[in-house]
């Protein structure tokens, strides 16, 4: 790993000309072929027919606006991802459809998370805001490719997992902050965790409904999504120094138990049970294969997870450029959808934290 005293930032190659700070690193996806519109067009009708159901069953999981006391900021990447999805996109930018209404309100809620954390960070006075703001610019420019294929089945399975993952990791961070005496941070993370729980409930209900309407298509999508893995938008994260920055952060998150491979497998088991995947009947032969794959996956991943835990225990302490290459542990903690909280530990003392979008 190479690192320097003055970190530089990098973005995707197409933006290379925008700044002298941009280095040679590119963010080309490991998956070279980008599949688009993988849902058969006739299935768009399914999502149209769910309009009223979404209004009555999903929109109820939004929080009334008055309950928020903080302002908003832009959240372009994730909303773009949803609005390129077939059957649910916001056709006008202000569409009254239930899907679009949900997406805009959900984005607003997530945006407030980012904004709250950003303000907290600013007021803490512990970080270089200029560097943080630069990083936000580059991350948004890089975009993200999580192989969604404009496919709402893939999207809603992914978002169910992500919301549950953030619910768990926010809860863990609240506990950590509490242990280290930062009551405000603990409270912030606790409130955000409860928001993530509502989001998880909403997305999980949508997938449950899809299993009811189209069990075969949904189980195929579930298997497909798991084969593609539930990767994080932060995969494209780069600090201009460490080519494996995201891997290093993930290893530390593992080690300190904020979000681990075990949580990933637990979540998989949770959803297999929640969506009654084992009990699905009347599937095609492909559907049955997908069902077997999904139902047997947790057990296979458990073995990998044990190996990963061993590897993590042996991993060396890694200096991170964000904190001037000091030899400390850093916990990365993902706040949905593209905001990261870093907790910096010297031995077992929390010495600082910062947020990165
Ligand atoms: Fe959320
Ligand atoms: Fe969030």
TrEMBL record:
Give the UniProt family note.
Answer: Belongs to the fatty acid desaturase type 2 family.
Where in or outside the cell it occurs: the entry states:
Plastid, Chloroplast
Keyword Lipid metabolism (UniProt):
yes
User: Which organism is this protein's natural source?
Assistant: Vitis vinifera
An example Gene Ontology cellular component term from the record?
chloroplast
Keyword set, alphabetical order: Chloroplast, Fatty acid biosynthesis, Fatty acid metabolism, Iron, Lipid biosynthesis, Lipid metabolism, Metal-binding, Oxidoreductase, Plastid, Transit peptide
Any one GO MF annotation of this record: stearoyl-[ACP] desaturase activity
What is the designated name of this protein?
Acyl-[acyl-carrier-protein] desaturase
Upper taxonomic classification of the species? Eukaryota, Viridiplantae, Streptophyta, Embryophyta, Tracheophyta
Q: How does it assemble?
A: Homodimer.
**Residues binding Fe cation 2:** 110, 163, 196, 199
Q: Where is Fe cation 1 bound in this sequence? A: 72, 110, 113, 196
What biological process terms from GO does the record include? defense response; fatty acid biosynthetic process; fatty acid metabolic process
Q: Which SUPFAM superfamilies match?
A: Ferritin-like
Cofactor: bound how, per the entry note?
Binds 2 iron ions per subunit.
Q: Does the keyword Coiled coil apply?
A: no
Q: Which cofactor does it need?
A: Fe(2+); Fe cation
Tell me the InterPro entries matching this sequence. Answer: Fatty_acid_desaturase-2, Ferritin-like_SF, RNR-like
Q: Just give the chief location class.
A: plastid
């Amino acid at each position: 790993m190479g690192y320097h005293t003055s970190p530089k930032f990098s973005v995707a190659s197409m933006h290379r000309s925008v700044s002298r700070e941009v280095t040679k690193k590119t963010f080309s996806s490991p998956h070279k072929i980008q599949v688009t519109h993988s849902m058969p067009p006739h299935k768009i009708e399914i999502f149209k027919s769910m309009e009223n159901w979404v209004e009555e069953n999903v929109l109820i999981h939004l929080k009334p606006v008055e309950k928020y006391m903080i302002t908003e900021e832009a959240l372009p990447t994730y909303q773009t991802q949803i609005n390129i999805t077939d059957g649910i996109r916001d056709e006008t930018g202000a569409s009254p459809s239930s899907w679009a209404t949900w997406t805009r309100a959900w984005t607003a809620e997530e945006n407030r998370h980012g904004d709250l954390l950003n303000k907290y960070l600013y007021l803490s006075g512990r970080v270089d805001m200029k560097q943080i703001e630069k990083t936000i610019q580059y991350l948004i420019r890089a975009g993200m490719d999580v192989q969604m294929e404009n496919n709402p089945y893939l999207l809603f399975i992914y978002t169910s997992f992500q919301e549950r993952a953030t619910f768990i990791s926010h809860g863990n961070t609240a506990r950590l902050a509490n242990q280290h005496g930062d009551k405000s941070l603990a409270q912030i993370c606790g409130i955000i965790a409860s928001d993530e729980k509502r989001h998880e409930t909403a997305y999980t209900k949508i997938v449950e409904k899809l299993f009811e309407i189209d069990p075969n298509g949904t189980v195929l999508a579930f298997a497909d999504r798991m084969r593609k893995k539930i990767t994080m938008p932060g995969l494209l994260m780069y600090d201009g120094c460490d080519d494996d920055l995201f891997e290093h952060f993930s290893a530390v998150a593992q080690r300190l138990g904020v979000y681990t491979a075990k949580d990933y497998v637990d979540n998989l088991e949770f959803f297999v049970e929640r969506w009654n995947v084992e009990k699905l009947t009347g599937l095609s032969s492909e559907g049955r294969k997908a069902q077997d794959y999904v139902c047997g996956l947790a057990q296979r991943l458990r073995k990998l997870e044990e190996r990963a835990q061993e590897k993590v225990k042996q991993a060396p302490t890694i200096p991170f450029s964000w904190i001037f290459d000091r030899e400390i542990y850093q916990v990365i903690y993902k706040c949905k959808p593209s905001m990261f909280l870093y907790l910096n530990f010297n031995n077992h003392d929390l010495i600082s934290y910062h947020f990165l979008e």
